């Protein structure tokens, strides 16, 4: 809006110099001065035209001189926030002299621009016009008296609405007002804000939704460090504690939460932390509530790495009471236990079980199309797009509803498009105060006036890292509730509405965000997870091995780690080390060289386990020489490791014989390998080698030698027998043993002759 001469009138004492200057415009001697003045004014206008939505907020919260050693002015109170017939406007201002000089006669004046500001650009122009810009018509003022350097003075100005030229027939909407501090006719500071004149009849209200993120600090691998960080975050002065204080009593504010955060807080041993979780659960009833993926993995990082989002990650379970003789206490990485300190093997109760899960909230204010596509592929039907994304076409003369449809390769996604100015104002912190509240009312009034017959629905997406100021935020929500042109509505209603047919800018195609986990780190975690899953097939129930470690693979990918990158490196290393420790729980016992003298025999192999589950594996022998063959594998179930009375892990060992065949003689190196019985292609232990001294031909040679020796013994026996039968001693003995022959004279001649013949023969 172009100011009229009257709207720029200065308070008494400040207008005389410019008026005197006008009477001398025709003097040639003052032409140069006039050109210089015009140049200054134009320069201020150009600067004002370049203000963006983000600078609008800072300018609206304080338009005083922002340099050091300046006079500052702050509006500390303005009542009522919406004026009606018969009301009296009361404004309290605080003036601080930050200069080194005493202000001799400072004057605070209240001015008003009586014209309705009917466009959002006019609102921005009013708040950013600068120290020398228009201040409206003065309606009242007060002298503060001398103000020493560093001193502060407070003043309260009151004026009936009739003196503001507001009456029953006035158009409803915002008017600009100003508070000006001048000393000796020279302006020292200006604070501009707005008053709202209420509608005289029914208006079509603007629907307004607000969403806030309940996401916690990054999950530290050290459980105690994470417990401390969580306790600090949910404390009264912590970020999550203040967020609950600001929004817990406002069911109109939707929550988008990390279920792992709420589960960890619910099961915390600290009563203050669990009380915070209980308060969140109680306040969630009756509001729009959405659950993110557990541990809030960075959707953008997974999208840019070409990986799927993790799903089904176990939530933190409440720690079980421990005793001195507990068998699951004092678990460390060194003992390769599969018990995770922050996660039990049983599923923890999900505090967000009844919440919606179809809304994604990427870590970047404006997500790219790659990220949105992965969100859609992962089940999200809607996403949050912060200020600066999907901007309506510049030719549009009104503010459309804050919902749009984004086409992706995985299907259409509805986008909640946050209004940049309202988001900045509603989330503004300390220092914004009254002026931000009045600007919010002015913005919503202008939006409602743009198309009075058409109801529109806008959304405010409070930043993910929002540092809430509960008192300020509550005051702003109360002002919005009281405004007849605003209807605070649940975001569910906006998601259920049809996107308006307006042209918008598109999302960027593929733009990695600052602080994302690197592709290398993400792929390292993915490999480690896959290796653990393959190893876990040795168990009848692989989940007993994988589930306790699953959170460790996801927590380093959380959006919260964008602001803690050095800690993320340690978290990634910790996850890999834990996975490697579990995968190292099975081993083959080395042994001394083995003497093998048979053609076929079982070769004994001893295996060891520190895994607290039974493991079924196959033992595979791989000789490096054909003189030894191992044609078969043997399957063995290794008992689970146990713990002694002190809680120390006791390894389980078992022996299995693997059949081998030997050929010839020689030393053969044998590699012993353990593979999963369920997936034989998966190696589950580091191979070990030992030497087998193969002497398989000893058995054959020994048999031949024994046979030859037996044959020789037999031949020798026979030979000895024959020789004994022919020896002289044996013949002589036989003659002696015969009966004595008869006397010669008694032997018949014929018989004697035959005996002689036999002897001759």
Description of the molecule:
By secondary structure, this protein is α/β, with parallel strands linked by helices. Helix content is 32%, strand content 23%. The protein is built from 21 helices and 28 strands. Strands 2-8-7-4-5 form a five-stranded mixed sheet. A hairpin with a 5-residue loop joins β24 and β25 (649-650). The chain is elongated and about 160 Å long. It starts with 15 loop residues before the first helix and ends with a helix.
Topology overview:
Layout: H1 16-22, H2 31-49, H3 53-61, E1 71-79, E2 82-83, E3 88-97, E4 106-113, H4 120-128, E5 137-143, E6 152-160, E7 173-183, E8 186-197, E9 206-214, H5 223-234, H6 239-247, E10 253-257, H7 259-266, H8 271-284, E11 289-291, H9 299-305, E12 359-360, H10 369-377, E13 382-385, E14 403-406, E15 413-417, H11 420-427, H12 433-450, E16 457-461, H13 470-482, E17 486-488, H14 491-496, H15 519-535, H16 543-546, H17 550-554, H18 565-583, E18 586-588, E19 594-596, E20 600-609, E21 615-623, E22 628-629, E23 634-638, E24 642-643, E25 649-650, E26 652-662, E27 665-676, E28 688-695, H19 697-726, H20 728-737, H21 749-760
Parallel strand pairs: 2-8, 9-10, 9-16, 9-17, 10-11, 12-13, 13-15, 19-28
Antiparallel strand pairs: 1-3, 3-6, 4-5, 4-7, 7-8, 14-15, 18-20, 20-26, 21-23, 21-27, 22-26, 24-25, 27-28
Helix pairs in contact: 3-11, 6-13, 7-8, 9-10, 11-12, 12-13, 15-18
């Amino acid at each position: 809006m172009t100011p009229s001469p009257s709207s720029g009138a200065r308070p008494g004492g400040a207008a005389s110099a410019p008026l005197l200057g006008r009477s001398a415009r025709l003097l040639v001697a003052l032409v140069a001065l006039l050109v210089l003045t015009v140049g200054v004014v134009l320069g201020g206008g150009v600067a004002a035209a370049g203000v963006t939505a983000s600078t609008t907020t800072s300018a609206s919260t304080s338009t005083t001189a922002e340099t050091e050693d300046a006079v500052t002015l702050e509006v500390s109170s303005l009542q009522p926030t919406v004026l009606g017939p018969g009301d009296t406007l009361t404004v309290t201002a605080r003036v601080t002299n930050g200069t080194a000089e005493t202000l001799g006669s400072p004057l605070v004046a209240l001015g008003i621009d009586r014209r309705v500001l009917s466009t959002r650009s006019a609102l921005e122009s009013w708040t950013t016009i600068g120290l020398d810009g228009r201040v409206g018509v003065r309606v009242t003022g007060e002298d503060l008296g001398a103000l020493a350097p560093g001193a502060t003075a407070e003043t309260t100005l009151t004026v009936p609405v009739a003196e503001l030229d507001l009456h029953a027939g006035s158009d409803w909407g915002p008017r600009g007002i100003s508070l000006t501090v001048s000393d000796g006719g020279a302006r020292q500071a200006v604070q501009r804000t707005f008053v709202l004149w209420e509608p005289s009849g029914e208006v079509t209200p603007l629907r307004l939704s607000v969403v806030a993120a309940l996401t916690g600090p990054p999950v530290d691998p050290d459980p105690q460090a994470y417990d401390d960080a969580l306790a600090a975050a949910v404390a009264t002065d912590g970020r999550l504690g203040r967020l609950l204080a600001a929004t817990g009593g406002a069911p109109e504010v939707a929550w988008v939460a990390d279920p792992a955060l709420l589960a960890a807080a619910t099961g915390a041993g600290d009563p203050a932390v669990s009380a915070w979780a209980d308060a969140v659960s109680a306040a969630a009833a009756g509001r729009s509530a959405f659950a993110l993926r557990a541990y809030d993995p960075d959707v953008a990082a997974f999208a840019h790495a070409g990986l799927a989002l993790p799903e089904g990650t176990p939530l933190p379970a409440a720690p079980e009471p421990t005793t001195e003789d507990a068998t699951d206490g004092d678990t460390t990485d060194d003992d390769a236990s599969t018990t995770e300190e922050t996660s039990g093997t049983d599923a923890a109760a999900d505090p967000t079980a009844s919440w919606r899960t179809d809304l994604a909230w990427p870590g970047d204010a404006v997500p790219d199309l790659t990220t949105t596509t992965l969100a859609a592929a992962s089940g999200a039907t809607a996403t949050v797009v912060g200020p600066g994304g999907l901007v309506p076409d510049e030719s549009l003369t009104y503010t459309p509803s804050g919902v749009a449809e984004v086409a992706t390769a995985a299907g259409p996604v509805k986008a909640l498009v946050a209004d940049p100015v309202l988001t900045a104002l509603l989330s503004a912190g300390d220092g914004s105060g009254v002026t931000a509240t009045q600007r919010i009312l002015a913005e919503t009034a202008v939006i409602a006036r743009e198309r009075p017959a058409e109801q529109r629905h806008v959304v405010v997406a409070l930043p993910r890292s929002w540092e809430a100021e509960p008192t300020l935020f509550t005051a702003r929500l109360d002002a919005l509730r009281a405004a007849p042109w605003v209807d605070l509505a649940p975001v569910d209603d906006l998601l259920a509405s049809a996107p308006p047919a307006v042209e918008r800018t598109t999302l960027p195609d593929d733009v990695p965000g600052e602080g994302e986990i690197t592709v290398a780190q993400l792929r390292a975690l993915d490999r480690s997870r896959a290796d653990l899953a393959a190893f876990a097939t040795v168990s009848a129930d692989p989940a007993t091995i994988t589930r306790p470690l699953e959170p460790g693979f996801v927590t380093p990918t959380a959006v919260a780690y964008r602001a803690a990158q050095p800690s993320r490196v340690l978290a990634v290393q910790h996850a890999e080390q834990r996975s490697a420790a579990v995968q190292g729980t099975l081993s083959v016992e080395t042994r001394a060289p083995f003497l093998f003298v048979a053609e076929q025999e079982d070769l004994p192999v001893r295996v060891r386990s520190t895994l607290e589950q039974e493991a079924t594996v196959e033992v595979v022998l791989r000789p490096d020489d054909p003189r030894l063959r191992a044609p078969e594998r043997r399957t063995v179930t290794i008992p689970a490791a146990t713990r002694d009375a002190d809680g120390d892990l006791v390894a389980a060992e078992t022996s299995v014989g693997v059949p081998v065949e030997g050929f010839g003689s020689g030393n053969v190196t044998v590699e012993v390998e353990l593979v999963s019985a369920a997936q034989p292609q998966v190696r589950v232990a580091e191979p070990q080698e030992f030497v087998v001294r193969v002497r398989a031909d000893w058995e054959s040679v020994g048999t031949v030698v024994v046979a030859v020796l037996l044959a020789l013994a037999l031949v020798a026996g026979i030979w000895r027998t024959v020789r004994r039968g022919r020896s002289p001693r044996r013949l002589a003995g036989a003659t002696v043993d015969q009966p004595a022959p008869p006397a010669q004279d008694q032997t018949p001649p014929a018989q004697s002759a035959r005996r002689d013949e036999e002897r001759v023969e």
